[in-house]
Design goal:
Number of domains: 3
Pfam families: Transketolase_N (PF00456)
Helix content: 40-55%
Protein name: Transketolase N-terminal domain-containing protein
Structural class: alpha/beta
CATH superfamily of the largest domain: Thiamin diphosphate (ThDP)-binding fold, Pyr/PP domains
Radius of gyration: 20 Å
GO molecular function: transketolase activity
CATH topology of the largest domain: Rossmann fold
Number of helices: 8
CATH architecture of the largest domain: 3-Layer(aba) Sandwich
Shape: globular
Strand content: 5-15%
InterPro entries: THDP-binding, Transketolase_fam, Transketolase_N
CATH class of the largest domain: Alpha Beta
Distance between the termini: 44 Å
């Protein structure tokens, strides 16, 4: 249900602080969570947001995919809230970016990881169905129909949309070689860190 991930993330962040207090810094880690327009409107999310801000959970980074579209309508049909101001009032650090720009996402995450006192909300302003086009090549972005079904059933063309985005319809989920090499490097680094931590436990 909407809001569940939000509250579970706050609970996980509280649990991390407990583990660090009980067992030491080797248990330290950061909680990342991803929320939507619908989820952030839920009352259960409001309570979780207030608690996280009050406790100063600086180990929590929440990315809000703010595309202004819900399952059946635009968000402007049900809310006029200023989400950034609301979270700032609760004690969060808020960073607003273009959520369709990978470089802005990277910079925001680096900035968020430097925060030492507050939970962080990254508001990524995005376009629902970015790059989607119809069979006729017309834009099919910002459509509620693309929220909860495959784009080919929502009214857009899967093949033409993939081509419009610079991809190959025959292999739409390809992993670029440089991405694979990058994550292989990260995996090796994580294994080394885990080995050091295990050795410290034995000592």
């Amino acid at each position: 249900p909407l809001g569940q991930g939000h509250t579970m993330a706050v609970g996980a962040a509280i649990a991390e602080r407990f583990l660090v207090a009980r067992f030491g810094d080797w248990m330290a880690h950061t909680i990342y969570t991803f929320v939507s327009d619908g989820a952030i409107q839920e009352e259960i999310s409001q309570g979780a947001g207030r608690i996280a801000g009050f406790l100063g959970l600086n180990n929590l980074i929440m990315f809000y995919d703010s595309n202004d579209i819900q399952l059946s309508t635009g968000t402007d049909a049900v809310t006029r809230e200023n989400t950034a101001k609301k979270y700032e009032a609760w004690g969060w650090k808020v960073i607003t970016i273009n959520g369709n720009d990978p470089d802005q996402i990277r910079k925001a995450l680096k900035k968020a990881n430097r925060e030492k006192e507050k939970p962080i909300l990254i508001i990524g302003k995005t376009i629902m169905g970015k790059g989607c086009v119809t069979e006729e090549g017309k834009s099919y972005e910002k459509q509620s129909a693309t929220h909860g079904m495959p784009i080919s059933q929502a009214g857009a063309s899967f093949e033409k949309s993939i081509k419009n985005l610079g991809g190959n319809p025959e292999d739409p989920f390809a992993i670029f070689p440089e991405v694979q090499l990058y994550y292989e490097k990260i995996l090796e680094e994580k294994r080394k860190i885990a080995a050091v931590r295990k050795q410290k436990q034995k000592d």
